[in-house]
Amino acid sequence: MAKPHIYTIKSFLKELQHVKTVMVVDDSASVRQVAELALSGAGYAVIEGIDGV
What we know:
Strand 1, helix 2 and strand 2 (45-49) form a beta-alpha-beta unit. A two-stranded parallel ribbon has the order 1-2. By secondary structure, the chain is of the alpha+beta class. The radius of gyration is 12 Å and the shape is globular. It has 2 helices and 2 strands. Helices cover 40% and strands 19% of the residues. It has one domain (9-49).
């Protein structure tokens, strides 16, 4: 699996201006991982929501 890119707030916001973004929220890490792989492979920026706490 690819190493996650580390962003500064400024670079992250700049990149989001040019990319469609999806937030994936699920309690299951494996579900989030599969969704992230599929969506990022389709060209989306993916933000993960781990839990509602």
